[in-house]
Amino acid sequence: MNGDVASNQSRSSEFIVSAQKHKIQKIKQKAGEAILLLIASFVAIVVFFIFWFVARDAVPFFRLRGFAEFFTSADWYPADDPPKFGSLAIIYGSLMVTLGSALIAVPMGVIASICLSDILPFSVRQYVKPVIEMLAAIPSVAYGFFALVVFAPLLQNNGGPILMWTWWVIAAPFFLLAVIVASELLTTSIAKESMKKSAKMALNIVLSLLAILFLYVVGNHLQGLVIMSGTNALNVSIILSFMALPTIVSVSEDALQAVGRELREGSYALGATRAETIVKTILPAASSGILAAVILGIMRALGETMVVWMASGNSSSIPVPFYNYLDSVRTLTATIAGDMGEADQVTGSARFHVLFAMGLLLLIVSFVSNLISERIVVRQRKILSGQ
Amino acid sequence: MRKFGAVLTLMAILAMIVAGNAGAATKGIVIDGSTTVGPIAKSFAAYFTKKYKVPVTVSESGSGNGAKSLINKSCDIADMSRSMKPQELAAAKSKGVNPVQSVVALDGIAIVVHPSNPVRSLSEAQIADIYSGRITNWRQAGGPNFPIVVIQRESNSGTQETFKDLVLKKAKVVRTAETQASNGAVKNRVSQTPGAIGFLGLGYVDSSVKKVAVNGVFPSVVTVKNRTYPLSRPLFMYTNGRPSGMVAKFVDLPKTPEGQRIIKELGFVPKY
């Protein structure tokens, strides 16, 4: 009887203990979750606070000076009396170097990632990819120093020939490819095999001659150019494109890899060549990832400060003509960095707040483009998976 | 384990804050300000620390920032290549700071061009015309037919402000002027760009660029000291109230033979 009670008690106490343990465990779990949530939301809170504080200091500028001057005038004289805060040229400069670097980095990056993922053998890729990614590890001030001390004088002294040779090196293979593809496409409708072959040959020759003529004319024009100052939009665009390359290559190569073996093998099984597989199967399937890579790369170029400050020449004027990449430009980021020292409440508050207005503009641009890319990715995914 | 890491991080941050405060509280002299005066302050500091065993920290963040630091009491001496502006004096007053000026040395702003440029002399008016964009080709200033690349300093530079006051008066710098962040960067750009014109503190001029005479007078120690060179100016150190103790000894270095030797060595002109 006694023993029975005792055993009963011990069992119930055991039960209580385990219930307590259970409770403690649950609390621990909740606490752990709470900590993780806190850390995760910390990032979101930081983003929110950055927006909040930048906006808070940007609004007084617009209240003091209105919107019209900031967005429509190119007179940037913040230190003069009376000061002028027209930022059109600076906004334009930012867009110009971003566009320039995208024009170089996007085709190069995407082609390099295709090469890495589908053409090079694994053993080579293993070495090439880390080397490309190493570009991202170089500090931006080192890029800037290179741009200012090595690249700018090079452009000034041998600008024309450099531009010409670059044009040939980049454009010649591209045109060769275009000629081959074009003659292939134009002759697909010809049924007779022998006629097709000779037509293709003729087309190849004609198109190649045209291409060479075009290459030569443009190359000649480029060779004749004289670059007055090597610190210009072109210099910065080139350096920025190298800084954006590792992002674009790495992320889009991951996207291409994620397409998977099944699709590739399915395409080959249907009789597609490697080129057809890449262009018609893999690229469409990976396009959302590649787009994300491109936008990340462009954001890198837009937000970069040190290089543009050192090597863009920082002249707050819109180039003449507007597409002239050989003129020097000033960007939003460089202006914020360069003017921050003096821009204090002491020297007049519009001058302080205008930098925050620029910061806000940069934030909004990157926010909106991130949203757009997100939307495109979602839509792309729907198209690929559905109907 | 994660908790431990977090605690460690927190402790490290706290330690840094404490160390930072402790650093500010020691008896050393903290100097901030002009990049033009900076080299003098640094050489003084090396000599001073060796002689008096007092640590001296010198930062170069521009005259405007130097004034700001002095007003915020985060430095003992503010190096400035211009006098304090009325707004800065007002701001100082409102914070209970009384800026006292002492002259360290004299400095000439040298107008420099690429060594290959045959132009030897420019008038003040010509320089003003070049910087305000009325002259865009060296031909208009007695040189070869070659476009001018105008190089100025960032707006937070004391040299830039002095240049604007001395040469441009009320005129605006042409919009296409390139802007560089330091004396070194300007020298680098001018030495590499055939069409370039720039301005430098006299101490920064070396053989990689070519000095141009202004109104017929070449910038040199002699012409700056006897004030015949038009683009010259005094360099200042500002203290909060009349300097005393070690700070006074430091500010009075330009009056000692050793201080004058340092100033001359750096390419500036001693006042005393």
What is the gist of this entry?
The complex is a heterodimer of chains A (387) and B (272). Chain A has 2 domains: 4-40; 70-168 and 218-386, Orthogonal Bundle (MetI-like fold), CATH 1.10.3720.
Task: Itemize the secondary structure elements and their pairings.
The complex is a heterodimer of chains A (387) and B (272).
Chain A: H1 2-65, H2 68-72, E1 76-77, E2 84-85, H3 88-119, H4 122-134, H5 140-186, H6 193-223, H7 233-258, H8 261-269, H9 274-303, H10 306-311, H11 332-339, H12 349-385
Antiparallel strand pairs in A: 1-2
Helix pairs in contact in A: 1-12, 3-7, 3-9, 4-7, 5-6, 5-7, 7-9, 8-9, 9-12, 11-12
Chain B: H1 2-25, E1 29-33, H2 38-52, E2 56-58, H3 63-71, E3 77-80, H4 86-94, E4 99-113, E5 121-122, H5 124-132, E6 149-153, H6 158-168, E7 178-180, H7 183-192, E8 196-201, E9 210-214, H8 221-225, E10 232-240, H9 245-251, H10 257-265
Parallel strand pairs in B: 1-2, 1-3, 5-9, 6-7, 6-8
Antiparallel strand pairs in B: 3-10, 4-8, 4-9, 4-10
Helix pairs in contact in B: 3-4
Describe it for me?
- The complex is a heterodimer of chains A (387) and B (272).
- Chain A is an all-alpha fold.
- Helices cover 80% and strands 1% of the residues of chain A.
- Chain A contains twelve helices and two strands.
- A two-stranded antiparallel ribbon of chain A has the order 1-2.
- The radius of gyration of chain A is 29 Å and the shape is flat.
- The N and C termini of chain A lie far apart (74 Å).
- Chain B is an alpha/beta fold and 272 residues long.
- Chain B has two domains: 2-105 and 235-265, Periplasmic binding protein-like II (D-Maltodextrin-Binding Protein, domain 2, 3-Layer(aba) Sandwich); 107-232, Periplasmic binding protein-like II (D-Maltodextrin-Binding Protein, domain 2), CATH 3.40.190.10.
- The longest helix of chain B has 24 residues, at 2-25.
- Residues 17-26 of chain B have low confidence and may be disordered.
- Classes of the chains: A mainly alpha (387), B alpha/beta (272).
